[in-house]
Amino acid sequence: MNQPTQLGRYRIVRVLGRGAMGEVYEGLDPRLDRSVAIKVISTACDADPELHASYSARFIREAQAVARLNHPHIVGLYDFGEEDGVAYMVMELVRGEELAAYFDMTQDFHLEFTLEDAVRMTCELLDALGYAHRNGVIHRDIKPANVMLSHDLSVKLTDFGVAHMAALNAAVQDADGAEMVGTPSFMAPEQITGQAVGPQSDIFAVGIILYQFLTNERPFRGAGMFAVQQKILHDHPVPPTLLNPLLGPAFDRVVLRALAKRPEHRYPSAEAFRDDLRRALDGDTLASSPWRPLDTVTPRSPADIVRHVQEDDDATRIGDVDATRLAPMTRP
């Protein structure tokens, strides 16, 4: 199908991006004379009725999730409609770049954020997540590509396409059973093994982003996705102060608690994470308990299941856990 020129009253201006599940256009709302972002389901799935049905359900779920949320650091939803069988969402257009692009520039051109900016942006992301969690929405795909930065480096959280709406503070799991949903290199251990997820799964992903802010490196690295997942399940990351000696030791405790293997050892809420991070920046005593160095994943069975996929490590995955790959879970 060719690029549409109009959806409802919205004129299509240009393509902004394409992903596995959808395409995003810049559009114009002539009634209000404002630019908007318009997301549609990817036409690549049209030939597969089951895939189209799955994407459609998740598309509607995303619209419902974002419609619940009205927060300055979450992209706003303006409208939802259908035109000639094409469902579309009309959202706030953020003029800026994905955080992923800034991290790429950091690697290539040694661009660095100030510590104050890194903490502020992480706190804005945690503010957005805390609000979403209080409203029963778990994002499940927190990663730099889903964090937009405006030109003044203000955070806007985007892409709730795999979000799960649940009762407040309740852990959730897809009705289909064990399912790996999210981006493998930013998944918490319980996501990798197809177990129930809750707010602490989002907190783990923010811990990875914060680590990259502070050190210019990811905490879990390996030759391929499977190796990275093994490190997430088994290894503790190098404390940030060993990579950036300008940091105070409080940053180690904050980051390593956010990256604890067991959800109950992480921060109880995004707000608690945010508050400790601010204390670390100010040099104050942390309110939280310290990181547990012997924290491990409790397996669901004698061996936990890990999915192995030879694709882009930073692409969102939606699928059943693959039982062909077994990773024994032992205390390090």
Strands in their spatial order, largest beta sheet: 1-2-3-4-6-5
The average pLDDT is 82
Tally of structural domains: 2
Counting helices, strands and paired strands, the structural category is alpha+beta
Sheet with most strands:
6 strands, antiparallel
Count all strands and give the number.
15
Descriptive key words:
332 residues; alpha+beta; Phosphorylase Kinase, domain 1; Transferase(Phosphotransferase), domain 1; 2 domains; six-stranded antiparallel beta sheet; three-stranded antiparallel beta sheet; 9 helices; 33% helix; globular
In short:
The protein has 332 residues and is of the alpha+beta class. 33% of the residues lie in helices and 21% in strands.
